[in-house]
Amino acid sequence: MRIACPFCGERENGEFTYLGDAKPKRPFVAVIEDGKGAEGEQDAFYEYVYLRDNVAGEMSEYWYHGGGCRSWLVVKRNTLTHEILSVAAAPGTGAAVVDVAMAKAGTE
Amino acid sequence: MVDFVWNVRSPLQQAVMPGRAGAIVPFAGVKLAEIRDFDLVQIFARRGQREATAKAVKKHYGVDAPAPRQAVSAKGATLIWSGPDQLMALSARKPGTFRPVDALRESFEGIASLSDQSDGRCLIRMSGLQARAMLAKLTSVDLHDSVFPVGTAATTSIDHTAVNLWRSENSEDGSPVFNVLVFSSFADSIWHTIVDAAAEYGIEIETRSAASV
Amino acid sequence: MASQQANRLAAGGLIDRTTPLRFSFDGKTMTGYAGDTLASALVANGVKLVGRSFKYHRPRGILTAGSEEPNALVELRSGARREPNTRATTIELYDGLDALSQNRWPSLGFDVMAVNSLLSPIFVAGFYYKTFMWPAKFWEKIYEPAIRRAAGLGRPSGVADPDHYDKAWAHCDVLIVGSGPAGLAAALAAGRAGARVILAEEDSLVGGRLNSDGGEIDTIPAAEWADAALGELRSMRNVRVMTRTAVFGVYDGGTYGALERVNDHVPVPPKHQVRQRLWRIVAKRCILAAGATERPIVFPGNDTPGVMMASAVRTYIERFAAVPGKRLTLFTNNDDGWRTVESALQAGVEIAAVIDARKDVPARCKALAEDDGFALYSGNVTGVRGGKAGISHVDIGLANGRRTTVSADTLAMSGGWNPSVGLASHHRGRPKWQAEIAAFVPDGCPPGMTVAGAANGELSLGACLRSGHEAGASAAADCGHAGAKHTAPAATDESVAIAPLWHVEGKQKAFVDFQHDVTASDVALAQREGFESVEHLKRYTTLGMATDQGKTSNVTGLAIMAQLTGRSIPQTGTTIYRPPQVPVAIGAFAGHHRDENFHATRLTPSHHWAAERGAVFVDTGLWKRAQWYPQPGENDWLESVSREVLAVRNGVGFCDVSTLGKIDVMGKDAGVFLDRVYLNAFSSLGVGKARYGLMLREDGIVMDDGTTSRLAEDHYYLTTTTAKAGPVMQHLEFCRQVLWPELDVQITSCTDQWATFSIAGPKTRDLLREIVDPAEDLSNEGFPFMGVREVQLRGGMVARLFRISFSGEMAFEISVPARYGDALARNLMIAGKPFGVTPYGTEALGVMRIEKGHVAGPELNGTTTAADLGLGKMMSKKKDFVGRVMAGREALVAQDRQVVVGIKPLDKTRRLRSGAHIIPRGTMVGPETDQGYVTSVCYSPIVGQWIGLGLVERGRERIGEIVRAHDPLRDEDYEVEICNPCFYDPEGGRQRG
Ligand SMILES: [Zn+2]
C-alpha cells in the first residue's frame, strides 16, 4: 500500500503506523474539581476509548508518518479494496493554527 | 589535579575505514564519505509563525527558507526541509562552541523552537555512478532525475530508521551526490548496511570535515 | 564431446555450440551447451526419467519447458548450497552443474517407495484426513515420522545458506510483465513515447514464444525481429530490461514483487554479489503480457516419461535444438498443437501419428498428414505402454469405436492454452470464461493494470503484437507520454481453433495434478463425498497446492468437476489466486536482514569504551547495552554484578543511560501540554528543576515514566524509558497534532544528541569535584535534590547536570554532546580513580532499582494503574490529563487489585524466580487461589538474599504475610514473605544527603 503524505508525497506503507478509526473525538473537558469533570464524562470517555467502527468499506483512519515527517494523517481508505480515497493532515501538523473555539465545537 | 582532555569520537569512528572496499574494480562505483565536524540545528516554527519563521530564515541566512521537499544552500549553511514548518540548518562547526543554538536564538526568539541535533546525527555523503543503484536497496524513494533533481530533500527511512536525504550538486564526473543524515546511535549499523549494499560496485571511502565540503 | 548428445540437432537453436558445458545428473556426467537449461541438456542427452512423483513415486519425465514444470524437480548443487525442488526447466546450465533427482530411494531407477503405487487405494483424495486418525498417540511416534520420511520432495541442505540476498526498489511509469511478442510490442510503444519502462522477463532471454514458435514479424523472421526490438529497447535510456526477473505478486498501490535471479546461472555468485534480489517495483501502469500455459489432457498414463506438452517439444527442438524422441505422436484438440508436428518434421523427426480429438480436423492439417505420409486418427489416446524408460506404444480409441496402437517414444499433448491470469487476479479478481479458446481470461484487473496478448486470450501472433502495442501506447499516454504515433508490428493471425477436451476415461491412473499426484478419479471421489466447491476440491485433493500452484492442473481439475456435477465451467469457477505466482525463496524475502543484520542496531556513545573493558552486552530493543563488566578472577555474572552493586553502594560507580528516550518539548504552551500528558503537574515546575512524571494511556493504564526537567520557561527536557522512547514520541505527536492543536508546542527527539551517565554512590560528589570546575557549587544547598543546571567541566567542556537518582544513592546524571561521550567515560574513570570508581551495567542498575522498590518495565506492563504501582497519590485532582477519566473506573480502583509489593523467600538461600505465582498457604493451586505473581527478581548483596517485586492482590494490606511462590514451569513451590517494596534506605536519606 502507498499513502500520499500531504507533506512528503507518496510513500510505501512501511513508513507509516496505523492507529485506527479517526471518527471518535476526545471529549472536551472544561473544568476539573476534585479530579472530576462534567457529569457523564466516564460514559463519554468510554465511548471515545472503546467504541470503534470497523467498517467493511470506506472509513477514516489515523496514520502516522513516523518513518518520514512525523505528521499525523487522516486517511480515507476502503478497507475492502485498500483503495485510498483521500489523505489529509491532522489539524495541528507543523505550525498550523487552529481555531480553538471551532476545535472545541467539533468535539462536543 | 589532572586536567581533562575532551577528545571527539564520531559514532562512525570504528566503522569508517578510509580506502577501497568491496569489489575490486578500476573505478569505484560508489564513493562514501563521512562528513564530520558540523553543527546541526532543527528550526521548528511555532504555532502561527510560519511566515515569521520564513522571514527570520531569510534574514539570518540570506536565502529563502526551503520549500517543502527542498534543500537550499546559503552562505555557510545548507537548509534542509525536514517536515511541515521544520528545517535543519547544517553548517561547518565553529570551534569552541558547545551550543550552536545560541547563535540563532536572537533571530528566532519567540518565532521558532530550536533543537541542537549536531550530535544526534551523522552525515554520510554518497556519490558515484552507482550511487543511485545502491540507494535503491536502502530507500523506497524514487531518485530518478525527473523526480529527485538536485536540491530535492526527503524525510524517509533506511532500515526502518528515519533519515533526512537530499541531493546536492552533481560531482565532477556528472554522477549524482546524495546526502543522508542518520541518527547517531544507528550510524554504525547503517554504515555497514550501506557498505554491504555498495560492495558489488566497488567503494571508495573517506572522511571529510564539513568545513572542506 | 558432442557425440554424447545423441538427441542434439546438428544446427539451429539458440545455443552456443562453441561453449560445451559439463554437468552431472544423479552422478552421471554429461555435456550440454551454453544456452541450455538443465532440462534441455537432459533432453539432448536422451534422459527420459528425471524424478519420482510425490505420493506414488511414479517415474516421471520432463513435461514442460518453463516455470510451470510439475515433474522435473531436482536438488540443485550440493552441500550448503543444495536447493531442493528446483525446476530443471528453468535452471540455466553452467559448467560443473550438479543435480540430483528427488523423491527416490535408493535410486531413481529402483525406488522402494514405488510400493506406494500398489497401496494407492489408501492414498486417494483426503487420505490425510481419513487414514491416520486413531489412535491419537500414534501420531507423534509412528504416523508423523513415517509420513515425513515418505512425503515431501527434496531435502533442504540443513545448514545456513552461504550466499547473500538483497532487496531493492524500482520505480517506473510502465511495468511490462513478460517479453514475448505482446510484451516487446508494448515496451517499444511505451518506450518510444518516452515513458519510464521496466520490461521484466523471467527467462534469461527475451522473446517468450518467439524463441520457440518461429513465424514472421514485419516480414522478417520473428527471432530477428525480437533481436532488433531488444537492441532498440536497450538503446533507450528510459527503458530498463530486466531478464531472469519473475514478477510474482501484485500488491496495493501499484507495487509489484519481483524476483531477480542474479547469479543462479553460475555455480557460486562472484564475491560481493547476491544470488537473488527481491524487487519491489512501483509502477503507475502495468501491462500483463505473461503469455499462456499449455495444458495437458487427462488420459490414462499421461504421466509416463515421454509424454510431454506439445509446446515444450517445440521449444526443445526450436530453441535448444534437442529432440525429445525419434518417433513422435501428437495428441491434440486444437490447431496450435499441429505446429509441433511442423517443427518436428523440419527437424527430421519421424511422425508416427497425430491423434486429433476434434470431430472436424481442419483441411490444412489433413493435407499435412497426407503430404508427409503419417497417420492421422480422429479420436483419443486411451493409454500408453512403457514405464520408467519411456513410452513404447500409444493406444488410441478411434472416433468410430475401434482401437489401434502405434509405436512411438514421444507423445506430445496439447489440450489448449490457459492465459496466465494469475497476476491479474491477485486482488481477488476472478477470471471469466471465454468459450472460443476454452479458457479463462482476466475479467477486470488490479488498478493500473491492463492485459495484453495471450494472457488476455489473444493467442495469435498478430493479435499479440497489436494488443501489446496498443496497451503500451495507452499506458504511456496515461502517464503523460503521448509521443509520436507508431504502427503496431504486423504478423499473420494463425488459427487457434479448439474443441475442448479435458478427460479421457480409462482404467489406468490419469493425472490432473502431476506434482501432487492428483488423478481424475480423486476429483470424482471428492465430488462423490460432497467436496464440489473448487475451494473444497483444492483442499480435499490437494489439487494445485504444490509449488507449481497448479499452473498445468487447476483449470483441468475444475473442468472435470464441472463435467461431474453437470454445471458449466464458469459456474464451477476458479479458486482465489494469491502471490507468489512463482516460488520465492525465504532468503530473498529476508534479503540483507539476517544474522547480525536481522535488525538495525543502536550503540551508545560509550559502546567502544565499554567493549575495550570487556563488557558483556545485552540487546535491549535495538540497543546494545553493557550488562556487566567482568573482572579477572570472577567466576560468573552474579559475582561481577554484586561487586558492581556494592561498589556503588559503598563508593561510586557510573552507568551509561544514554538509551533513555530524550525529547525536547518547546513552545509557550509546553508546560500546559505536559500537564495534560502526565498525571502530575509540570507547568508549576520551576526552571532548573526536574520532576518524576508518570503518563497514562487514555484507558487509565500506566504508559511510561521518567524525569522531566525544565531548562527554560518554554523548554522542557523529557525522558522516557528505553523501551518506550518511540511509542511515547508518537503519542506526544498525536497529542500535539490531533488532540490539542491549539497549543503552541514543538517536540523533537534528542535521544542521540546526548551522552548521559548516571553517577551514583556516596562518593559521587567527590568524583564530580575532580572533574567539575571548582567554581561550581555541588553542595546540597548549591545543587539540591532534583536540581538541574549546566556546569563547566575542567578541560573546557560544558555539561548538563541533573541531581536525580534511580539507585537510591546520592547520584547525578551528567550529559554531554554525544561526541564527547567516549571521552566522558574515560575522564570519569580518571576523576574517580582515587575513590575506586566502578563502571556498572544494566544488571547492577536493575538490582539497585529492585532494592529501592522502583518500578520498571516488568511492573509497567500494560495492566497496572498508578495506584497499583504505589503512585496513586501523584494523580493531580486539579487538571485534565490523558487517562484521568478511565483510570477512575470501578475495576481500576477496586480494593482487591494486584499491587506492587516486595517479596523475599523465607529460606534465605533460595533463589526467587520471576513469573512464580503467589498462592495463599494451605490452599490448592488453581486460578481461583492465584493472587498475583513475581515480576522482578535479583540477588541483593545488600540484603544478602534473593529478593523481588511482585504484583499481589491487596498486597499493601498484607505486608508481613507468608504466602507460597508456586512455579509450575520449574516445578518449584516455596514460602515467601510479602514485604515493603523498598528494601534499602526507605527514608531516602542517602539520595538526598
Ligand atoms: Zn510525511
Automatic annotation (TrEMBL), chain A:
One of its GO terms (molecular function) is sarcosine oxidase activity. It comes from Pseudaminobacter soli. It comes from the Bacteria. InterPro entries: SoxD, SoxD_sf. One of its GO terms (biological process) is tetrahydrofolate metabolic process. This is Sarcosine oxidase subunit delta.
Automatic annotation (TrEMBL), chain B:
It holds the Pfam family SoxG. This is Sarcosine oxidase subunit gamma. It comes from Pseudaminobacter soli (ex Li et al. 2025).
UniProtKB/TrEMBL annotation, chain C:
GO terms for biological process: tetrahydrofolate metabolic process. Coiled coil: none annotated. Belongs to the GcvT family. This is Sarcosine oxidase subunit alpha. It comes from the Bacteria. Residues 900-985 form the Aminomethyltransferase C-terminal domain. Residues 507-591 form the SoxA A3 domain. Pfam families: FAD_oxidored (PF12831), Fer2_4 (PF13510), GCV_T (PF01571), GCV_T_C (PF08669), SO_alpha_A3 (PF17806). The lineage of its organism: Bacteria, Pseudomonadati, Pseudomonadota, Alphaproteobacteria, Hyphomicrobiales. InterPro entries: 2Fe-2S-bd_N (IPR042204), BFD-like_2Fe2S-bd_dom_sf (IPR041854), FAD/NAD-bd_sf (IPR036188), GcvT/YgfZ/DmdA (IPR028896), GcvT/YgfZ_C (IPR029043), GcvT_C (IPR013977), GCVT_N (IPR006222), Sarcosine_oxidase_asu (IPR006277). Residues 607-879 form the GCVT N-terminal domain. Keywords: Oxidoreductase. One of its GO terms (molecular function) is sarcosine oxidase activity.
